[in-house]
Amino acid sequence: MSKLLRHVALVPDDIHGKLADSDVTRVAAALQKQAARDFGPVWEVNATVDAFTSLDDVPLGYWPIIVGEEGQGGGGVHLDRDNQPFALVDLTPDWTVTASHECLEMLTDPFGNRLVAGDSPNPDRPGRVEFLVEVCDPCETPTLGYTVNGVRVSDFYTPRYFEPPQPGAGATQYDFMGHITAPRQVLRGGYLSWREASGEWFQELFFGPTPTFRSIGHFDTNFKSLRSWIDSTSLSMRVTALKQRAVYPNQVLIRLPGEQDSDNSLASQATHTRAEALRTEIAMVRTTRKATPADEHEDRGGSTRKRGRRRS
For the chain, what is the mean pLDDT? Predict the structure, then answer.
């Protein structure tokens, strides 16, 4: 059975020309490649990610990721009045990691209410619980991510993240980059949320020196989804963590507005060199065509001969 194709739009809004159309296009291409090559096969999702210059250009049926000024009042995935998802991303350093984060979570759970059962990670409250599926939150710090086409993107956990350990089964891939080494592990700068059978929600947070557990009470029905409510409870801590500079070994990057001023542009240099070489080839082809007389043609034997006028 074919999988339903999901469409995501990356679009700037109200940032007064701080992103060129080419910048948005390059980031959208990286997110598309990540979704198709890395994420889709693991989570069984088929998706497209396309760039648009304005919200007015986004076709119906696309879920927009909107890049705007810092302090939009609720970054993350939201639901509109028709319960369709959209995401807000602040134009801050490593904004492409956040865009990747929101894109992957939107593709996994567009409506922000998907739960998976498992064992509680809190040793003081053992038992079966239900986890909110947020594929990037336990490993969301930008430094844990990687690059696609020179664009920084987010790490994400795999469906194996909620499975019990299997001794002797060999190495288990709990996240794409291999940072997570055990089921339901939360890495520094991340968090995990779950609901006990009583309906009370808990979290494990790793924003300080050591992980901590806390209760956040019962779901606030003023929010349209579990995810938007959960995100609101840890927004300030998440914003601080996401502003930490991403540093990957031997980075090959494209330099983008809103990113770190010291970023290299090695990936951009490579694409520019390739483009210049291709322009030279195109110019040679065009010049050759113009130099070929219009009255020449090839005969059936492959040789070229000129057409002559028939004498009367």
Answer: 85
